[in-house]
Amino acid sequence: MDDAVVPAAAPTPGTSGVVRAGAVDVLAGGRGPIGESDVSPAAGPASAVEFTARADQTEIVATPVELRAVTRRFGDTVALDGVDLTVTKGEVVALLGLSGSGKSTMLRQINGLDQPTSGKVITLGQSVDGLNQAGLRRLRSSIGMIFQQFELVGMLTVLENVLTGGLARLRGPRLGTWSYPQAAKLEALDYLWAVGLADRAFQRADTLSGGQSQRVAIARALMQRPSLLLADEPVASLDPESTADVMLLLRQIARDKGLTVLCSLHQVDLAMGWADRLVALRSGRVVLDESAAALNREQVMAVYRPVPSNSAK
Ligand SMILES: Nc1ncnc2c1ncn2[C@@H]1O[C@H](COP(=O)(O)OP(=O)(O)OP(=O)(O)O)[C@@H](O)[C@H]1O
Ligand SMILES: [Mg+2]
Question: Rounded to two decimals, what is the model's pTM?
């Protein structure tokens, strides 16, 4: 574990003099192998005022995630089967279960990428089934998503990838770092600083290691100023050291920002030491929902015994 790349506190944008000074240095002096014109400290077409004025439209709610009797069928497959779940603000929850048990399907219900066959999903205080396309877009802009495959745009710089996390707060399309307001660039650099990658701001994203890529994806999610962070197997493609790095970073950011996190994982030991609470699915049903401290390994491993082939899935 490299302590140097995981700061004790993820800074709030613009509040840390040290971080801000560092960010200005990078913006003013940074010269990477690509996009030299992109690093001009001149403000882009939109002003900083416009950028900050459109932020944080979603109310902070006491229970950011609420699923009531949620069932999702795909033909004969019951991916979620009468799931009830409430996650309170600031909780860090690991979602466990065999492959095919419904973890990704549950995360997709919460961010409105998929709709339940029956039941109700209330995310950040909003009933997801009542939202139109614009409402869904607004909701998703308040939810940071982190995926196994990072989903960075390889040909863009690290900085521009992070900047895309703030697009919902800007009017109109952006192309090139120069086209973002200075306030956005400084904020993005703050987050890169927080994940230990400010010195890579002008590097192409497709030249990063897996662990670095996932840290950039976390910075991009933070750029959304999310009220909720959903992660779907964020460390499944990482080596053990990067895994520990990324999970520690997620935990610290959650604590420092009071963020609610729901994260699917396959590593039981990691989940037990990382989460406040463990929720396990089995054939689409919640079969375990306990404080991590109250569980031992055997109790958690019981979730992973093979599902009989004739059972409904
Ligand atoms: N779009 C879909 N069409 C048909 N079946 C689907 C669809 N999405 C999910 N399923 C099925 O629903 C079940 C739950 O899938 P899901 O992806 O949620 O599992 P998971 O717990 O995330 O698995 P893994 O750990 O492998 O990622 C599986 O049987 C899967 O095949
Ligand atoms: Mg999955």
Answer: 0.84
